[in-house]
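Journal club prep, shared notes

We agreed each person brings one worked example of a sequence with its structure written out as tokens. Mine is Glutathione transferase. I'm keeping it raw so we can talk through how to read the token line rather than staring at a rendered picture. Sequence first:
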Amino acid sequence: MCQVSTVVVDGKFKLFESQAILIYICCAFPGVASHWYPNDPFQRSKIHSVLDWHHSNLRQSSGDNISRLFLLSEKDYDRILKPYKKVVQWIEDTKRATAPHFDEVHGILFKVQKRLRKRMAVNYNDLKSKL
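Then the structure, token by token:
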């Protein structure tokens, strides 16, 4: 099974995240059948409830954990992800599809990553010199 990053481009407007895309398409293009996205606010709120639950529960266990891998040393990152070529490809595809937003959103994480990797290298070298 192939994981594809979902992106919609409408002129200069670029949007990612399937939930946001669904709502955008249904609002921007009138006439979407009501069985896809109801006009009735009570029925629509049920769809939003399911989409929010999905985003908060199911997706959290995958994407967030992968993002945390960026905090590991390069050696550990490669050791953990190298056997999973499809995951590595998915990460690269996501970065490309959401550029430049991926780097903007992960900017703080990348700064922390750099500091942690530097600190781990210093600690490793200190430990190595004591042995």
